[in-house]
Amino acid sequence: MLHVEATLHLGTFRLDVSFRTEHRRVVLFGPSGAGKSLTLQCVAGFAVPERGHIEIDGTVLFDSATRTNIPPWQRRVGLVLQAYTLFPHLTVAENVAYGLAPVWKGREPVRVATLLAAVGLEGYMDRMPSQLSGGQRQRVALAQALATDPRILALDEPFSAVDAPVRERLRRDLLELLDAFRVPLLFVTHDFGEAYLLGETVVILSAGRVVQVGSPEEVARHPRTATVARLVGAANVLEGEVLDSQDGWVVLRAGPLTLRTGGPALPRGARVPVCVRPEDVQILPEGPPWPRARVTRVLTRHGAATVVLSVQGLALEASVAPAPPLGASVGVRVPDGAAQVLEPDDEEGGGRP
Amino acid sequence: MRRGRLAPAVPWPLTLAGVLLLAYLATPVVFGFPGLDPSTVAGAVRQAASAGAIQTSLVTATVSTVAAVVLGVPLAYFLARSEFRGKDLVSALVYLPLVIPPVVGGVLLLAVYGPYGPVGHWLGGWGVQVTDAFPGIVLAQTFVSAPYLIVAARVAFEGVDPTLERVSYALGKPPLATFFRVALPLAWPGILAGVPLAWLRALGEFGATVMVAYHPYTLPVYLFVQFGSEGLRAALPIAVLLLVAGAGVLGAVQLVRRGATRMLP
C-alpha cells in the first residue's frame, strides 16, 4: 500500500499531490515539470514537504502533523535515477555490497553474487563502472538498490538514457525482478508506453497536481480531462455541442461530425470537450452518409500511418493502414461509443501560484 | 603540413611574452649560484644540521601540513556543500592569508598568542610557551600554508557529484559514513595535490615565523641569520638546499601523478 500526500513550494513551483493505492506497481506519469521527480524525492526523503503524509505498507515515513520525518538513510527506499550514479571508485561487487542489509552479514559475497545473477551480470564482479555500458550500469544500480532489502524501489526515468532496444529489454527484466524479490515499485516516466507496461496504477501529474489516477487501460480509455487525453495519446480533443442526452447516452455535434457515446446526462446545448483516439477514426470511401474529409498530411510510421484529415475545416487525426494518398477525398466515421466526454481542465491553480 | 587533429595555434606575440617571463624565472636558477662547489654546499648543510635548522624545518612543516589536512579537509567539505548567508565572507577569511604579507600574519599571531596576548597568556598559565618555540612555528606555518590545502580540497569536493552522496544516503549510509566512503575517497586525489604545495609553503615560511618564533631556527630563518652575520656567501648554499627541496618535491609529485594516470583504465 502506498499513500502519498505532499504539499511543497520550490521557488515558484507548487507541488500539491495526493494519491493512495493498494497496487504494487505505481507509475507517476506526466510531462516534464509536472512534479513527478519531486514527488519521488519526497518519498525518498530528499525533499521535505511543508504538509503531507507518506506511508508504505503501514510504515509512516513522513507525517507533518506528528512531525515524523524518517531520514533518507533509514527509509529503505531503493533509488535508481536517470543519471548513472554508481560509485566510480568501487568495483561492481563493492557497489552492490555497499548498502547490503544487515541480515546478510557473514554471507555478503553469496548475496552479492545472487543479486548480480538476478540482473544478468554474473561475470562482472571485478569490473569498474566506467567499463560498463549504460544498460549494464543501470542493472548494477538495480542490484545495488535491491541489496538493501528495500520497502519499495523508487526509479526515476532509469532507462531513458539507454539505447531503445536495450531499454525494452530492461523494462521486461524489471518486471521479473519485482516478482522475484517481491518488492513494490514507484516508477517515474514521461513515456505513456512505459507507464502502460509497468504500472498497475498510473498516477497522472500535471503542473504539480494529480489530474487522474487509474489503471493504464482506464486512463487510456477514459481520460478525465483534455490534458490527460493528450498525454495518453487521444490526440483529437474537440469541442462538442450537446444535441440530445438522457441518462447513459449523449449525442454531440463537433463541427460536421455527429458523435454518439455513453455518459451521464448533459443539458441540451451545453458545450463540452470530447476526445477521439486516432485509432478509432475510420476512413471510408467518399460518399453519403459520411462527412467528407480531405487528407492534408500523411505521417508514415513503422507498421502504420497517421493521417491528418480536414473534415470541412475541422482537423482530425486518424491511424490507418494502408494510408490514403495525400490530398485524397474520403469519408470519415467515428463509431458510436468511441468519443469520450471530458471534464473541463482543472482551473490553473496548481503549478504556478 | 601537420596531419591529425588541428590544435589551436598560439600567436607569436603571446609566445614572445611567455618566453620573456620564462627567461626571467629561469635566470636566478641558472646564474644565481656561480662557482658554488658541492663541498661548500655539503659544509653548509652540515652546519645547518648542527644548528638544528633542518630537523626543525622538516618536523614543523610536516606537523603544520598534517594539521592543515585534518582541520582543513572538513572546512573545505563544509564550504563545498553548505549554502548559508555570509558564505562569501567565510571564504574570504580562508583566502586572507594568501593575500596579506606573511609578516602581517606574524604580527596578528603575536597579538593573540604572544605572552601578553589573550590566548598566549592563558596558555602560559598552563606552562605552554608558544612564541620562540615549536608551537609558534607550527602556528605561523599553518596560518600561511593551510589555505593552499583548503582551496585544493574545496575544488576537489565540488567536483564530486552530490547525487552520489544522496544515493549513499538512500543505501542506508548516514552523512558521516557517506563522507568517509564516498566524498572523501573521490576527492582524495585532488586533496593530495594540495599537500605538497602546503608542505613546501610551510617549509619556506619566513615572514610570519620570524615574528612569532625567531628561535628555534627554521631553515629560512637560519638563512636570514647567516646572511646577516656572514653575508651572501654563507646564505647561498642554504638557498640551494631549499631550492632543491622544492624542485625535488614538485618532481616527485609529477612522477607519482604520471604513474597514477598510467594505472587508470
Helix and strand topology:
The complex is a heterodimer of chains A (353) and B (265).
Chain A lengths: L1 E9 L2 E9 L3 E5 L6 H9 L6 E6 L2 E5 L4 E2 L7 E4 L11 H6 L10 H11 L15 H13 L5 E5 L7 H18 L3 E5 L2 H7 L2 E6 L2 E6 L1 H6 L4 H6 L4 E11 L1 E7 L2 E7 L7 E6 L5 E3 L7 E10 L2 E8 L2 E7 L8 E5 L6 E2 L12
Parallel strand pairs in A: 3-9, 3-10, 7-8, 8-9
Antiparallel strand pairs in A: 1-2, 1-4, 4-5, 5-6, 10-11, 12-13, 12-15, 13-14, 15-21, 16-20, 17-18, 17-20, 18-19
Helix pairs in contact in A: 3-4
Chain B lengths: L11 H20 L6 H13 L2 H29 L5 H13 L2 H12 L4 H8 L8 H25 L3 H9 L4 H29 L3 H6 L6 H12 L1 H32 L2
Any overview of this molecule?
The complex is a heterodimer of chains A (353) and B (265). Chain A has 353 residues and is of the alpha+beta class. Helices cover 22% and strands 36% of the residues of chain A. Chain A has helices at 36-44, 92-97, 108-118, 134-146, 164-181, 192-198, 216-221, 226-231; strands at residues 2-10, 13-21, 25-29, 51-56, 59-63, 68-69, 77-80, 152-156, 185-189, 201-206, 209-214, 236-246, 248-254, 257-263, 271-276, 282-284, 292-301, 304-311, 314-320, 329-333, 340-341. The longest helix of chain A is centred in the middle third of the chain and has 18 residues, at 164-181. Chain A is elongated, with a radius of gyration of 24 Å. The two termini of chain A are 31 Å apart. In chain A, 41% of the residues are buried. Residues 348-353 of chain A have low confidence and may be disordered. Chain B is mainly alpha-helical and 265 residues long. Helices cover 78% and strands 0% of the residues of chain B. In chain B, helix 8 (162-170) packs antiparallel against helix 9. The two termini of chain B are 33 Å apart. Chains A and B meet through strand 7 of A and helix 8 and helix 9 of B.
